[in-house]
Predict the structure.
Amino acid sequence: MDGSGNAAAGFPRLAGINAEYLAKQLHDYRDATCNNPVMQPNAKTLSDAEMKVVAACFATQRPTTLPIVRDEVFETAWP
């Protein structure tokens, strides 16, 4: 609810993330460009205007946790 995410459940932090990026992600989930069984059904219920509002809401929230970073990011970024 506050955008902090839940590392144990694998939900990333959204608070403080750029609104344009978040809106694009929601569009990609809705259009099935990005595949996620949790996000796709939720994004399909949102209009473009609602996606912008949701994205702006999360973007203005103050982060209370660090972002979740997957191991494969480090594997590709570091030799």
